[in-house]
């Protein structure tokens, strides 16, 4: 177990009834900051335990996804499970779930029942389309949120340049962003409930995957509403700023260069040996550079192709131009900045012979940064401890629940 500094959310207790990514991501962020997160999962465990690379049957992905949580295994469909959940709710500040709308109510755990156990409970629902509206009952995962939210249309090369389908971002960004919004909503609700002049009332947070992605779309809707303009994918560049793109290198890598202000553009042109282009009408300002971006990217790319990526990084850093090679996992693991700030950490996980690399805690609260207290635990690792501590169940009562397959 890693030694961690007390987190800023120490003393807060969160109950998670979630699976896969969205709700578990939200609760992991809260747990990283010190909250006591109790995760309720099926007797067989969260399906996410089977995701990613496995070593001797243990998921490396789960090591980080489930970290800092106390996990109990509970068959929510068993008649006796309802009383266990309600008993936990009485000791809980907030509940976060990501079932389909209405599913908790079908299990006898609707908001009215939950708040019967604790009237000031904050409840956060994460679903594909939200708890209301004509799409509320549709099935959805994060990728559907990306599609309907407008992101998948933009993660592509410019129109007419490729017949390949628009690519996925590479991680479950729809789930993760909705998890972030759930965290914001929960903390806001707790602030209104518990602050010095708070009202002591519980609140309901309704987060949709689709809306979470749509909220990231910058000026897409205003431009369409006012001008009828449909924002189009721009490949590796930015449609509103130039030069900003990924450029090829002599050793087959890619380097990002963002030189879209006047001083930066001038320094870049000096660096690549084209000072005569500073101030010419085609590149005299950002709008002019955007209009001529294809030619500009071509001449920058011709320069970057003549150097290996490490040499380019050094030259651009010396010229104080924002730039970076495109990092892989290996680059991230070795990066001194990430290591210095604890964003890449070696965490002991008893399921693996060697320490597992984890990301650090975000945000970094200087006075109470939290940390990684333990890696993702085994199914039901804390069932006895949690039910004993919070519900007062003795070994005999626990044994009865095990025998009836209520817990496992």
Structure characterization notes:
The protein has 408 residues and is an alpha/beta fold. It folds into two domains: 274 residues, Crotonobetainyl-coa:carnitine coa-transferase, domain 1 (Rossmann fold, 3-Layer(aba) Sandwich), CATH 3.40.50.10540; 77 residues, formyl-coa transferase, domain 3 (2-Layer Sandwich). It has 18 helices and 13 strands. Strand 1, helix 1 and strand 2 form a beta-alpha-beta unit. Helix 1 crosses helix 8 and helix 6 packs across helix 8.
Keyphrases for this structure?
2 domains, Rossmann fold, single chain, alpha/beta, 408 residues, 37% helix, 3-stranded antiparallel β-sheet, 14% strand, 18 helices, formyl-coa transferase, domain 3
Oligomeric state of this protein: single chain
* Major sheet strand order: 5-2-1-6-7-8
What is the arithmetic mean of pLDDT? Answer: 96
CATH superfamily of the largest domain: Crotonobetainyl-coa:carnitine coa-transferase, domain 1
Structural class: alpha/beta
The N- to C-terminal Cα distance equals 24 Å
Strand segment count: 13
